[in-house]
Amino acid sequence: MRLCVGTSKGIVILDPARGRVPLMVVAEPCSVWCMAQDCENPNLLYAGSVHDSHMGNARSRGALARSTDGGRIWSDITPGMARDEDVWAIATPGDRPGEVFIGTSHARILKSEQGGQNFRECTAFLKLAGRDRWSFPPPPHIPHVRSITFDPRNSSTFYVGVEEGGVFRSRDRGETFEPLNHGIYADIHSIEIDTEDPNRIYATTGRGFYCSESGDGSWRHVNGFSRSYTVPLLVQPGAIYTAAAAGPPPTWSMGSVGADALMFRSHDRGRSFEPLTLTEGGASPMRAMVMRLRRDPAGGDGDFLALLTDGSIVRMNEGGRNLQLIADRLPPVYDLVVLP
Question: CA-CA distances (angstroms) from residue 163 to 11, 58, 101, 106?
Fold first, then answer.
């Protein structure tokens, strides 16, 4: 198994079986925030870049890149209509080769059906009521699409999370959208769907973890977290994983505690959570923040990979009971895809 890893300083290709030394480091794209992989061709990859000084990301030219050879060579495919924007989210449906959706700053959604050769805008997303009230705390207060998640049972349906604007659903591949925002804090970071019930949806936000149990747009805030700023989200059969920091990204480089982050696990479909650890000796807080959680296809049921802002990648085995450091001393790590 090889990993194509997106960091704040570009692409790194790793083979965990050969140790922690990268097989290859690719300078362009120079900064990667999010990645996706074509459903049919695993060597067709997409990488999105953002400019965010708090996270150590500083894109140069384009915000969207594509590789057709598993991450060795990349080309800029930033749509002309979004040349001055960042790409915060990328998603590919599981049943349509060549189709890719991107979410940008200014809270736009663009879609390509030709492997990124050209894009068109999902214009219905621009017409949602209340859009003019979406914002983002740091100047210039521009909201962005932070998450795009397809229903694994029906890829005509996908969910969009806007930071800060809320959760929205499309049932027709982006032709129309509906808000799902009753009772949820609008600072959305990640959205995932339950593995057993498509009406059960989970979301991480800047004020904690939320669960929607009926698909009607109403949400319940899940109590019991000792940290409030939740970011990554992974839903596995039998368990849900997330991580939470004590505060937002500007605080993560401050003081001796940094992000003061913990990982959490739920065995009851999001009704309650317990803390996990990525360090030896118990559930002690981490200075680094976990930005992504990805299923580990080389592991057993419940195994996953955690990507951290201190440049490390950790494999969690046996449902989070054991850990293995598979990469360290990288730039801040934000996403990865698994190569054949």
Answer: 25, 19, 17, 10
Q: Which domains does the chain have, with CATH numbers?
A: 2-339 (2.130.10.10)
pLDDT digits (tens, 9 = 90+) for 287-306: 999 999 999 987 777 789 99
**Which tokens belong to 170?**
């499309």
13 Cβ contact list (under 8 Å, min separation 6)? 2, 3, 4, 5, 22, 23, 24, 25, 26, 70, 71, 72, 339
Type and span of the H or E element at 109: strand 108-112
The Cα 86–Cα 107 span in angstroms is: 10
Beta-ladder partners of 32: none
Q: Tell me, what's the pLDDT at 319?
A: 59
Sign of CA dihedral 318, 321, 324, 330: positive
Contacts with 171 (C-beta within 8 Å, 6 or more apart), sequence order: 156, 157, 178
| Beta bridge partner(s), residue 249 | none
